[in-house]
User: Fold this.
Amino acid sequence: MKILVVDDEKVLVKGLKFNLENEGYQVVTGFDGAQAVELARQERPDLILLDVMMPRLDGLQACMQIRTFSDVPVIMLTAKGEDMDKIMGFECGVDDYVTKPFNVLELKARIKALLRRSAGRDRAADYRNPEDTVEKGHILLDRVARDVKREGISVELTAKEFDLLELLMAHPGRVYSREQLLDKVWGYEYQGDYRTVDVHIRRLREKVELVPASPQYILTKWGVGYYFKGEDRPERPGR
Assistant:
């Protein structure tokens, strides 16, 4: 597995490179946002560790550019702990956050979790189990390839967006509270604001719903949470 580490603190980059290489990862390094975009395109890493405050392009700008050509998992390294900063990151396509100073063991655990969830994205399967795919109307989710198609066309989802959609589609009609979604999708390590879920739900609607402002599948149970409507073939909007 190849990890791209980009931070303008060269001592930190050196330390992360040493620790991750000891775990068996191949590590590529950069020191500013423009390098992050260039290396992400050239090296095609399996995961990116990206600092927020960097010269040329900041981490959020770099992540937005990377998202135009890749859905590689991104963990943002930041000295900012405010929830609004994290929400801005999720808006830009960040999958997870680690606030400096951080415990390197916790960082390694988050890296392993994200890599484990995205491991099947580019892997072809010789045998296809019917349960490998879930199809509801115009949305087709492939668990093995970690791919989602909207009316037959693949859409790029971040690792967390895919995990959230997979959970909802696997249990149509079941309403999940924001707290339950944070626990099941982000896991024990996340202690952020419930608005994180709202951001991801909105981004999913923008990507997979035919009319995001009037969603047909990813629905809200007011005062409770979110659920996926299990109707197979809804009428198209306007019909």
